[in-house]
Design a protein that fits this description.
Two copies of one chain form a homodimer. With about 270 residues, the first copy, chain A, is α+β, with helices and mostly antiparallel strands. The first copy, chain A, contains six helices and ten strands. The interface between A and B is medium-sized, with 34 and 34 residues.
């Protein structure tokens, strides 16, 4: 699923492209993915495009907002050459169209007023690039839990915006085992991890996000991101670790593919006594 | 927070009390907890009161629904003698009033159409009393994760409706350590756990929910539930286990108070190698 860097890439593109344009029509082919009445926003102009966690927030001139979550396979394409059978929603502007494709149909677009938006967004943990994402905050969260660090990184209520790609990448960068219970992380590891998270997210943004093996993430101009060319560990099982030449392994952790170097990342193992 | 048995108790009460009554006014003292325009439902009649996970769903005669989550400290009281400083919303009927009190202000009431409701509810895992909550389902979920069993029981995307009280109670009944990683549960333990979950939830419903030490849960008639008189383990640290006389312990697991008998529940310990 598109994570912080992918959604941020889309946000920046749209914030240039659709700004001040007027919505003239909305074509909804999948009602469950656009559950509101589109009449509420026809005629409104776009004021800004923001992001919170993995959500896009489009502010409109009529005090409504569009909250968009791409979930597993959503794409937002500006003026694609063609629609296809995964096209679920088309937002028609006075000039140009924004097309929402979604193979798996888990994504959605909601129309919300500002109070509703507050309610939807309040469940998310701090943004990694905000001052709330501090060592002190991480220490507080981590000391309460024996969940594996990788699982906590994916928990949007704890930290906003990180998904499977950047969790794997950050743990590789910080040389921490994905399975290590957060309670067992040392203060030095927490510092390294925070720094690594910020580094890999910045790299992700710099390279316009990652179009990984499934090729589901596209930029709004229908082209691929390029962070996949810079993956440290993600989907690299069987290849050699660039630091120590050990073969990278893949395990399943909480249902998600988890990649690590068994040497650099010092795999912790559990024993049940 | 009110869990399945508490919400189910409220649901049953309301489904008798407010059925076919007409909403004539809504007083909103906390806008963020009632983010929609109350005009949308004034004049509508109540068709039914349902439950999904810890949510109440009130079906209205105008194809709208009210989705209500009580969160940490929400109460729904029918015709209480007085309002107090925690009163956030009052739904006035042609006969009688439903008062939403909430000390912590995390609860909310949303007005949704049916498509919006579908979108909100689709994230929840199976209801414990449905056929989807099978041994096979639990095996599938558990084999993917090394998270502690207690943490998984609280995860609404995995199983709907269980909170801290009933997770503690079920693990005590099943004699399973709350810290045991779900991957390590045997098929016999999974069977025992499923049975124990259904048993403690049934008992919770039978005794009209639990008004535990914080006294935040009330039935809509402002009286207490009585399941707290039948707690096996919850908040019983320092007391003796009824089965083996060992002193019940309390630990913190994922930030939640966790109670267990160190003998019956055979506390697993982790070692990081």
């Amino acid at each position: 699923m598109p994570e912080l860097p992918e959604v941020e890439t889309i946000r920046k593109y749209l914030n240039k492209t659709i700004l001040r344009k007027r919505i003239v029509n909305i074509k909804v082919f999948s009602k469950k993915q656009f559950p509101n009445n589109s009449e509420e926003i026809v005629g409104a102009k776009i004021l800004s495009v923001k992001r919170r966690a993995k959500n896009l927030i489009i502010e409109l001139s009529n005090e409504k907002t569009l909250l968009i979550h791409l979930k597993l396979s959503g794409q937002l394409l500006w003026r694609p050459k063609t629609l296809n059978k995964t096209t679920r929603i088309v937002i028609v502007f006075d000039k140009g169209e924004l097309v929402f494709n979604d193979l798996r149909k888990f994504g959605w677009i909601k129309i919300l007023n500002l109070d509703q938006l507050d309610l939807e967004l309040k469940k998310f943990g701090p943004e990694p690039f905000s001052k709330d994402f501090s060592i002190k905050y991480l220490q507080k969260v981590f000391k309460k839990s024996i969940r594996p660090v990788k699982t906590i990184l994916l928990d949007q209520e704890k930290i906003a915006g990180i998904g499977n790609i950047y969790a794997n990448e950050a743990l590789s960068e910080a040389e921490i085992s994905p399975q290590k219970p957060v309670k067992a992380l040392t203060i030095e590891e927490i510092k390294k991890l925070r720094k690594a998270i910020l580094l890999v997210l910045r790299q992700g943004i710099k390279y316009n996000g990652a179009s990984a093996a499934d090729k589901l993430y596209l930029k709004p101009d229908s082209s691929n991101g390029s962070y996949q060319q810079h993956f440290r560990i993600y989907q690299k099982n069987g290849e050699k670790c660039k630091k120590c030449n050990t073969i990278i392994e893949r395990i399943n952790l909480g249902g998600r593919g988890t990649f690590f170097c068994p040497k650099c990342q010092n795999m912790s193992r559990f024993r049940y006594i």
